[in-house]
Amino acid sequence: MLRFVVRRLLQMAGVMIVLSFLIFAWLRSLPGGPVSAILGERATPATRAALEKAFGLDRPIWEQYLLFLDRIAHGNFGASIRVQAGTDALEIFLDRLPGTIELTIFALTIAISIGIPLGYLAARRRATILDNVSIIGSLVGVAVPVFFLAFLLKYVFAVQLGWLPVSGRQTPTIDATHITNFFILDGLITGEYDAAWDAFLHLILPGLALASIPFAIIFRITRASVLEVLDEDYVRTAEAKGLTSRVIRGRHVLRNAMLPVTTVIGLQVGSLLAGAVLTERVFSFRGVGDALAVASTERDYAVLQMLIIAAAAVYVIVNLLVDIAYAIIDPRVRTR
Amino acid sequence: MSEPLLSVRDLKVTFTRQGAEPFHAVDGVSFDVRPGQTVGLVGESGCGKSVTSLAIMGLLPRRGNSVSGQVMFEGTDLLGLSDKQMRERRGRDLGMIFQDPLSSLNPVVSIGVQVAEVVQRHRQVSKSVAMEEARAMLDKVGIPDPRRRLREYPHQLSGGMRQRALIAMALACRPRLLIADEPTTALDVTIQAQILALLKDLVSESDTALVMITHDLGVVAGMCDDVNVLYGGRLVERNMRHDLFAAPAHPYTNGLLGSIPRLDSARGEPLDPIPGSVSDNLPWAESCAFAPRCPSAAPDCLASSPELVPHGGGGTDGEGALRCFHPVVPAEVAR
């Protein structure tokens, strides 16, 4: 098991090196480039050359690449020019990451805790009303665009009914101490439970909007996977042993059915970050997605580069976790 | 003569599907199994032998079929039991082993847990006691180094070892009846012989009754006391093993025997297969289902359905039985 994890870690390092190269190449090939983004289109050649020299853009390409790696290794991604002008990109990222993590965990918890049990039940009661209704529900979940669902939820539950806050991560007037920037966690640590509750209420609507697609996918994969496992000979063997339906469900059906579901959950974590761009915009939720939206429309390359590297790292780390989870569930992977 | 342990009476299993004709997979099968006896259910694919065993175990899918008749086990009709009551009996009173040992084992659960869970379920013992029992069972079925094997997974075991593990699970609670559905079909020949010898030892030592489901008459010859030959969902011949092999009366039984290669036949002599396949079957209701493939078929075979009538002196229950208008006369016996 340890050897398995070490091997995966080495593979992960390799993936990050390839990614750094791609990101570097992408940054160099952008039309206009950082110099015109900063100075505008009508700067004089002299000022352009001065800035290029200051950024090291006049050096050979391989040297620039090494410099780029060196800066990343020191956490120096450059200063933002638009999102929060003058602030270090890394600082912006770290400031906004907790919000997005809170949102992602909340959305994923909803998607998993409804998607897996419902998928199991739909498979067990195949072709009944429950099965058909949940299939239709999940199709709607995938088909409705996230930003539309976000607007709809906001309009109905925040604007019309007024049950939940319209936007933001926390009511600005609330007196809250921030330690970790995970607002719910902060409230729990400091004992400001009303602040934690307020932050939680702010998560519900964007969380629901964000959960719709992962829920639908997790539900469908669980259902298909359970149906397949129910037909396996080893489930019949378990029945022939007279085991209780609880043991058969947990040990023999769900454990095997979870293998493909694990993979899908891993992939969904990655795409939740992408989904967060739209959802965070709609709810003015100060997270990474919101920063990414601003940075890409306003050519804030420092922030963009920071966020792309971070997103790649998240994907790679989540994949590592999925692989480890896979090895825990399936001994055939572990002992190979 | 002891009372039968298992007494199947007029068992019928009909598969019903919307928009399709109901299919009578098992069409009125009756047979007895006495304590300690080994009884064979023999026939080719599709004759209803596996469906019969699944019906006895209560393992048929809940939807899409109807089961009627009686399956008396120690005085209780198993078909009348609730799902919960049947769950308590399976694994404790009735054990079953299946054809393909790899797919019949859960790939993600260790062998130890898979054996111990039966013990834990039916004997209300602690996990460690059940594990110790599992180790003893693995030892008993001839798995070397059982303590290590407890922690291993099915993919780490050889085919023969997997079948031994399945046998260990089925016998862990010392059931009084074991059903073995083609237990050696997926194994190679040398392993087959080992597994059959093991089964034979285990059932005779513990006085377990065994229902052996097979298409292989070689297995029948080595294992069974009584033999029931099934064709198209009905019993066509029943006899004691010795009498059945010495004097097969049904042309189908005779054909099965004739299609086995023999050591004493001349080199190059062709085998004598039964022509056609089960898809040529006629409905039993108005004819003999085997008639289209039968060498002794006559016009009356197509005109009415033969009944199962007492035949010969065989069978430990005092009567052999036969369903045929034109039984094989001893001179025609294939061999």
Descriptive notes:
The complex is a heterodimer of chains A (336) and B (335). By secondary structure, chain A is mainly α. Chain A has 14 helices and no strands. In chain A, helix 5 packs parallel to helix 13 and helix 12 (288-297) packs across helix 13 (301-329). The mean pLDDT of chain A is 85. Chain B has eleven helices and twelve strands. Chain B is globular, with a radius of gyration of 21 Å. Chain B has 335 residues and is of the alpha/beta class. In chain B, 31% of the residues lie in helices and 21% in strands. The chains are: A mainly alpha (336), B alpha/beta (335). Chains A and B meet through helix 10 and helix 11 of A and helix 2, helix 3 and helix 6 of B. Chain B: It is a peripheral membrane protein. Chain B: It comes from Nocardioides luteus. Chain B: It is found in: Cell membrane.
Question: Short description, anyone?
Answer:
The complex is a heterodimer of chains A (336) and B (335). With 336 residues, chain A is mostly helical.
Q: What fold name goes in the CATH topology slot of the largest domain in chain A? A: MetI-like fold
Low-confidence stretches of chain B: none
Describe the sheet with the most strands of chain B: 8 strands, mixed
- The name of the CATH superfamily of the largest domain in chain A reads MetI-like
- Rg result of chain B: 21 Å
Mean pLDDT of chain B: 87
Number of helices of chain B: 11
Approximately how much beta-strand content do the residues of chain B carry?
A: 15-25%
- Output mean pLDDT of chain A: 85
Structural class assignment of chain A: mainly alpha
Most extensive contact: A-B, 23 and 32 residues
H and E order of chain A:
HHHHHHHHHHHHHH
Care to count the β-strands of chain B?
Answer: 12
In angstroms, what separates the terminal alpha carbons of chain B? Answer: 34 Å
